[in-house]
Amino acid sequence: MAELGSPVSDVRFPEMREAVVRALGSLADPEYQQRISVERRFPHAGFHDDLDTNISTLYDDCVVIPDPRIRIGTVLVDGPEIERLIELDRALDPMIRRLGDVSDAVYLADPAWPAVVGAARAALAAMTGE
Question: Quick check: helix, strand or coil at residue 72?
Fold first, then answer.
């Protein structure tokens, strides 16, 4: 998993920032998604992760999308991560609206999913400086 980098000291809620980075890391890794979300092969007992959890982290819990600008200074740092999160929303929101509440496997098999993975990777890189 990617490290947070120095901007963590520039936000009011670094724990929320860490949650966003973890969610982006999950969305950016298709092999992880397949193993965890579809095959349900967890690294240890009591482990839980799935697309709904990660999407909820971004949209509901930390509210960094659809408009990340409102979280500058609290969870996010002004700069490239803002634009990358906007791009992630542009890729992900239409899928959510179109597919709704279906299994993770349906999302992962959708032809639009690689764009979500790419946008998550770009957002993760912007947030971690990698």
Answer: strand
- The domain spans of the chain are 6-128
The whole-number pLDDT of residue 6 equals: 45
Burial bucket for residue 43 (CB in 10 Å: 0-12, 13-18, 19+)? exposed
Tokens matching residue 85: 């999160």
The rounded mean pLDDT for the chain is 91
Rounded-to-integer distance, Cα 80 and Cα 32, Å: 25
Amino acid at 82: I
Nearest-angstrom CA–CA distance, 68 and 81: 9
Predicted TM-score of the model (pTM):
0.90
Identify the pLDDT of residue 8. Answer: 64
Count CB atoms within 10 A of the CB of residue 36. 20
